[in-house]
Amino acid sequence: MYQGTNIDGPSLAPEQLNIRGKNLTSLIQESSYLEVVHHIITGAFPSEKELKEIHHFCNQSLHSILNNTEAIALIKQQAFQSKDITKTIIQGLLLGFQEEFNIVLSSQEITYDKDTAYGLFLISTIPLFVGIAIQEIEKENIGSLSSIHLEQSYTENVFQLFFGRTNTIKEELILFESLLIAWHAGFGHLTPSVMGPRVAAGTYSSMEMILITGFTCSGPFHIGASQFAFSFLENYKNDTLENTLEAIKSKLASNEKIPGFGHPLFKKDPRNNTLQEIWSKCISDKRHIKKYNAICSLLEEIKGLQPNIDFITAGILCEFSATQATLAPSIALFSRASAILAHAKEKKQKPPFGSKSKDARKHLDQLSMGWI
């Protein structure tokens, strides 16, 4: 018997993404990041009390590692050697921080079982690894680590770690949370960054390894495309709009591909319009969104292509003055980690490898050579 999932997945009529029966575009418009994290893990939205508990737990988890100088040194070393934020996150996850987790868990109320709580603990610490990586790569004391404050919202701490500044305005946080929600789930077990962790969870692997599996199941054609889209836009950040469009026309005439356009399943990525509307409302300086819109119009006119989540992510990161291209896929993977946790939780409730021996033997001959 096939054992699928109803956690998240696409619909083609109409084209949309659904998270536990809720349209993702509605979640982007109506919910906060931690609300959707709880929703995808449990299938319900948190009460006011539960949401407060989740905020405290995530903030305490993030803060708990600051005094572990040995761990921070290892994370810095990885950042220095790789110059890659995602690889630095993986190094941080490998460390596990069981002692810190036990302390946080004993001092905080949280409604999740211990395995799920540990997964959320690990996810909550990821922004610290990002902040360490950016500092180490840029070799500048940008003050992001010292900006973690328990009285701030968790997402405000995350924003400051990602972008290295404390002068955050409310509208920026709204746009930032919308971006996190847009990435947090979508295509279910078809997605490589979810399919891999489901396989790992089917072997009852540790939560660290399950999350890491998801992070390694990304590349230039899945999540990593956002890095190339950001690098592309960065090349033209100081150019006039007219020069940028002329350069793109030249590339298109030479049949060069522009990263961040087209989608393997959808004719039009349903997340982009919603993010674009929020972006336009939140930011008064229209420089970056004007360039984004103009490029999108040009690609549609010449190639009939629509932008996808990678391209609008790149545009929003330019809006936030991001400096590292590898931040783009790292933000996407940090967001997607909540879906990884939800899928791992579901998969661990099934038999090892996902099915009983009798069912596996029965259906083995029905698998084609190219089934994966």
Description:
It is built from 18 helices and three strands. The chain is mainly α and 372 residues long. It folds into two domains: 225 residues, Orthogonal Bundle (Citrate Synthase, domain 1); 95 residues, Cytochrome P450-Terp, domain 2 (Cytochrome p450-Terp, domain 2, Orthogonal Bundle). The chain has a three-stranded antiparallel sheet with strand order 1-2-3. Strand 2 and strand 3 form a beta hairpin. It is globular and about 55 Å long. The two termini are 18 Å apart. The mean pLDDT is 91.
Topology diagram in text:
Layout: E1 8-12, E2 15-19, E3 22-23, H1 24-30, H2 33-42, H3 48-63, H4 69-82, H5 85-95, H6 98-107, H7 114-138, H8 154-163, H9 170-183, H10 192-202, H11 207-216, H12 225-234, H13 241-253, H14 270-282, H15 287-303, H16 309-319, H17 327-348, H18 357-364
Antiparallel strand pairs: 1-2, 2-3
The span between the termini is: 18 Å
List SSEs in N-to-C order.
Answer: EEEHHHHHHHHHHHHHHHHHH
Shape: globular
Helix tally equals 18
Quaternary structure type:
single chain
Instruction: Assess the beta-strand content as a share of residues.
Output: under 5%
Number of domains: 2
CATH superfamily of the largest domain: Citrate Synthase, domain 1
What Rg, in angstroms, do the CA atoms define?
21 Å
Question: Got a strand count?
Answer: 3
Q: What is the CATH T-level topology of the largest domain?
A: Citrate Synthase, domain 1
Text of the CATH class of the largest domain: Mainly Alpha
Portion in helices: 55-70%
Mean pLDDT: 91
Name the strands of the widest sheet in spatial order.
1-2-3
